[in-house]
Specification:
428 residues; alpha/beta; Elongation Factor Tu (Ef-tu), domain 3; Rossmann fold; Ubiquitin-like (UB roll); 3 domains; 6-stranded antiparallel sheet; 6-stranded parallel sheet; globular; binds flavin-adenine dinucleotide
């Protein structure tokens, strides 16, 4: 199907969704009123008796479940499941090794892992989105794509350290350490507005957590999922998404394959050849007050961020998550223009490592400078989200390239998004 045809189809789906909502409300008001009144008493009695135990145990759970935990916590892998044909995306089901409850999280949040990569002196720190609805309860699920060396990289280039570790070493029974859920890319569960979920590649992980949460809550919101991948081999959570699309009447799923192969079935596996574009989204978004949640590669995030502006979507209606700093959508997290003179330089002392280096404009963040000079630094998201890199600022002042999502504690700074504003002494 061509893009124009699909755009028309999306338009028809929009109209269909509106008339469906109207029909549902008329039917529920007129047709079911009498029946409901008759059965109401019976239902109320049944509901009370069926839920009495649940409410009691929820109350107990509420007392037992701490809201978070400090530092690292050990988790046991209880299951692992490949999520695509290509078997480079795998879900890991984790239960706390201490046997205690796990705190709830918000759909869209992530865990930060400390990964003991063989051959590395220090564990590497990486974030992985929670990919299941919090309503699933009792376990956490993260879904990790094993990163192969980039196309054209010299022979011998290693795969991604952490993602390769997950795929190669984590089997049922393995232990992995994680920090508590965090992140502010979260579904607004109290809103009633239409929700438009947009995912590219492995960016489906937080999006599917949101989708599953909406469905677990039996939300009656109009839900759209636009999912872009290369082809069927890469298509993650295929069966799950197909089943939801068939079963949930207020959900519309549109899948775009950028590189379909001959075995990819058009209008079965995917609807559109190409990418998720402004043109495709326009009929759903134009003139409507929708909430948009987006996670995907840099190119998609950038072009759609510009597209939303063209369509007239208010910036506050769009929330996005970037898995790598290059994908941070410019409209959402503006990089501050350095306020200092372009030629100005500062002396940076990394006190713990006993190193003193010069920072100049163009050297990037303090974290980049530290790493380039062999200073050991713990970091996760590298975009001021996870807070893993927080260190004590012993002397001097920093400014932030973008406002950190996690405000550092007094006397600390987040070197991954900080640049010096004066000479500095840092506890690194
Ligand atoms: C908030 C957040 C949530 C996230 N959620 C998810 C998620 O749900 N699922 C998911 O899969 N990811 C997620 N990520 C991304 C994840 O955190 C990691 O960034 C990702 O797994 C890559 O880490 P790695 O250690 O495997 O790769 P790295 O070791 O960092 O390597 C990255 C790439 O560089 C290549 N490389 C290594 N050495 C060289 C070299 N010398 N020259 C050239 N190339 C080289 C590797 O082959 C690899 O392709 C998330 C990130 C954030 C910030």
């Amino acid at each position: 199907m061509e893009l124009t045809e699909l755009t028309q189809l999306v338009g028809i789906m929009v109209a269909g969704a509106a008339s469906m909502r109207a029909a549902i409300s008329v039917a529920s008001f007129a047709g079911r009123r009498y029946q409901f009144a008759r059965q109401e008493k019976k239902y109320v009695a049944e509901f009370r008796s069926a839920t009495a135990g649940i409410f009691q145990s929820r109350q107990i759970q509420r007392q037992e479940v701490p809201l978070t935990w400090q530092g690292k916590r050990k988790f046991r892998v209880v299951n692992r499941v490949y999520e695509n044909y290509q078997q480079d995306i795998c879900s890991f089901y984790l239960e706390p090794n201490d046997g205690r409850s796990i705190p709830p999280f918000r759909p869209g949040q992530f865990l930060t892992f400390s990964v003991p990569v063989p051959g590395q002196a220090e564990p590497v720190t990486r974030c992985y989105s929670l990919s299941e609805s919090p309503a699933a309860g009792g376990y956490y699920r993260v879904t990790v794509k094993r990163l192969a060396p980039p196309e054209g990289a010299p022979e011998g280039t290693p795969p991604g350290q952490s993602s390769d570790y997950f795929h190669t070493h984590l089997q049922p029974g393995s232990i992995v350490e994680a920090y508590a859920p965090s992140g502010s890319f979260c579904l607004d569960e109290h809103s009633g507005r239409p929700v438009v979920l947009i995912a590219g590649g492995v960016g489906i992980t937080p999006i599917v957590s949101m989708l599953n949460s909406l469905i677990a809550a039996r939300s009656r919101r109009e839900i759209w999922l636009f999912y872009g991948v290369r082809n069927r081999a890469e298509h993650a959570m295929y069966t799950h998404l197909q089943q939801l699309a068939a079963r949930v009447r207020n959900l519309r799923v549109v899948v775009a394959y950028s590189r379909p192969t001959n075995s990819c079935r058009h209008n079965v596996d995917y609807h559109l050849r190409g990418h998720i574009t402004e043109q495709l989204l326009r009929p759903v978004l134009e003139g409507r007050d929708c909430e948009i949640y987006m996670c995907g590669p840099a190119s998609m995030m950038r072009s759609l961020t510009a597209g939303f502006k063209n369509i007239g979507v208010p910036a506050e209606n769009v929330r996005s998550e970037a898995f790598d700093p290059a994908s941070v959508a410019p409209a959402e997290t503006p990089v501050k223009a350095p306020e200092h003179n372009a030629r100005q330089t500062f002396q940076i002392e990394f006190a713990r490592s006993g190193k003193r280096v010069e920072w100049q404009s163009g050297d990037g963040s303090i974290l980049e400078l530290a790493m380039a000079n062999g200073v050991k630094a713990r970091c996760g998201c590298r975009q001021g989200v996870c807070g893993t890199c927080a260190i004590a600022l012993k002397n001097g002042e920093v400014e932030y390239e973008r406002t950190p999502e996690k405000t550092p504690a007094p006397g600390k700074c987040l070197p991954c998004v900080a640049q010096p504003q004066s000479d500095l002494v840092l506890d690194m």
